[in-house]
Write a structure and sequence with these properties.
single chain, alpha/beta, Rossmann fold, 3 domains, 7-stranded mixed beta sheet, 5-stranded parallel beta sheet, about 55% helix
Length: about 500
């Protein structure tokens, strides 16, 4: 029945189509009508059974297509499926691996962070310690007491020494060193008082005093306290442990110059010495030095601090020289006359009263004594005039009697630069004792430890130190040993005759 209905509807459609076409072949409206008719026809409701049949047919066709899949397609499909599964598995393994690596990295990062924390803590601790140490160090001021005569009769030499100390302090570039300066007035009581005040202020290192009397006034205090004193006096009799006498010791110079003249064959030696404690000290040293060589002083004369006494002493030590010179002149005259009967010719092996004369003086006193010796027939060409570093004074170079004279003095290896700098800064020559003070401060700057303390093993060095006045070394007994050169007065100049040793023998 349904089939017939469908046929009838179809025939009706074609009939309508034919009628419309025939009526309006060229009319555009005819085509519009046809289009509308198509829509109407297509929109006819389909029968339910027909729809079911169509669905069944489509299902059968899909089944057939599925059955027609080739083996190859199935393999491909299977491969795709396997690849997919493999990728999923691989991805899973990779994920596991990634998770493992992540865990490892996390662990490592934790360890690293812990280490970093420890390092940071350590650094912070070290920084704190460093800051504390720096703060502690900043609190340190290596205070050095300076005892000098800055007023009164000796203020000039005191000021010159202070200049040398300030120059040494500047050149040291040690900002922790601080000089606590006190005026002694070259007075023993004043020295003792200012010394006690500085001790009460916890100062344990001192430069000065300059003179022996001042040093003697504080001797007992040095023994009672842990104090180190570097005195500028040359009186080695006051030397003791903890109290060094840095002045150029004349006793060492005497031993040096006597060894020199003895090595030249001069064994008959006379001595002109000041009539004071200094002169007696020199004489004691002379006796010991000569006894070491199985010798003794041939003549000794002491002079006071006046011209008349000095002339008398020179005349006394010159006795016999006038006669000696007269005998030599007669011998020469007899030889010219060829007088073989002359007693003098037969005894012409005359001995000089003295081979050498040591003159323990300086400046004007030295020139007075030397000129008086020559006036008393002591020929400086035949008799050696010898002395110590006190001779190294330009004022004596014009004295004819001192030409050819020799003396012991300190080395000048480092003096040139120091003298130049001092002269440039202060407009004057640096005194010898000021150079000694310069060396002391330079030494302290070298041996002071971080706590501002001095260790004896560093201070008392057997090899010694090279200073402005040559090689020196400190002894445990408070003496300061030095090396010396020999100088000779030639053509109104001080010329080096024998170099100072470059090291200590023992």
């Amino acid at each position: 029945m349904i089939k017939y209905k469908f046929i009838i509807n179809k025939l009706s459609f074609y009939l309508i189509f034919f009628v419309i076409t025939a009526c309006a072949v060229n009319d555009k409206e005819a085509f519009n009508i046809i289009d509308e008719a198509k829509k109407i026809f297509l929109d006819f409701p389909k029968d339910e059974e027909n729809e079911k049949k169509e669905k069944v047919l489509k299902a059968k066709e899909a089944t057939k297509k599925k059955q027609k899949l080739t083996k190859k397609d199935r393999v491909v499909e299977k491969k795709i499926s396997n690849d997919h599964q493999h990728n999923i598995l691989k991805e899973g393994l990779n994920n596991e691996k990634k998770e493992t690596l992540l865990d490892k990295e996390l662990k490592e990062s934790k360890l690293i962070s812990k280490r970093k924390e420890k390092l940071i803590q350590k650094e912070e601790k070290e920084k704190k310690v460093a800051v504390q140490n720096n703060l502690k160090a900043d609190q340190y001021e290596f205070k050095i007491g300076v005892l000098l005569p800055l007023t009164g009769e000796h203020k000039q030499i005191g000021s010159l020494i202070l200049n040398a100390l300030e120059m040494a302090l500047f050149q040291s570039d040690n900002k922790k060193l601080k000089l606590i300066i006190r005026d002694t007035r070259a007075d023993a009581q004043t020295t003792k008082k200012v010394f006690e005040d500085l001790i009460d202020n916890d100062i344990r290192i001192f430069i000065g005093p300059l003179y022996s009397k001042s040093l003697a006034s504080i001797e007992n205090l040095v023994s009672e306290k842990n104090i180190k004193v570097f005195a500028l006096t040359n009186n080695s009799n006051l030397a003791k442990k903890g109290m060094w006498t840095f002045g150029i010791d004349p006793q060492q110079q005497i031993r040096t110059i006597l060894d020199f003249v003895i090595s030249k064959g001069n064994k008959n030696i006379g001595f002109l010495l000041p009539d004071n404690s200094y002169g007696y000290l020199l004489y004691d040293t002379i006796e010991k030095a000569l006894n070491k060589n199985n010798l003794f002083p041939a003549r000794v004369e002491f002079f006071k601090d006046d011209i008349e006494s000095q002339r008398q002493a020179a005349n006394k030590i010159s006795r016999g020289f006038k006669e000696y010179e007269e005998d030599l002149r007669k011998i020469e005259e007899d030889l010219e006359r060829k007088d073989s009967d002359s007693l003098l010719i037969n005894n012409r092996d005359l001995k000089k009263p003295l081979d050498s004369i040591f003159i323990g003086a300086s400046g004007q006193t030295l020139t007075i004594l030397a000129s008086q010796l020559q006036y008393s027939s002591v020929d400086p060409k035949k008799v050696s005039y010898v002395g110590t570093s006190s001779w190294e004074d330009a004022s004596i170079l014009q004295e004819p009697a001192l030409k050819g004279g020799v003396f012991a003095t300190t080395s000048e290896l480092l003096q040139k630069d120091i003298k130049k700098t001092y002269s440039t800064v202060y407009g004057s020559d640096i005194p010898k004792v000021a150079m000694v003070a310069y060396d002391i401060l330079s030494l302290l700057n070298a041996v002071l430890n971080e706590n501002g303390e001095i260790e004896y093993k560093n201070l008392v060095n057997e090899s010694g130190y090279l200073g402005s006045r040559g090689l020196f070394r400190l002894k445990y007994d408070g003496t300061v040993e030095r090396t010396f050169q020999i100088k000779k007065i030639i053509k109104a100049k001080f010329e080096t005759y024998q170099e100072a040793p470059k090291f200590f023998k023992n």
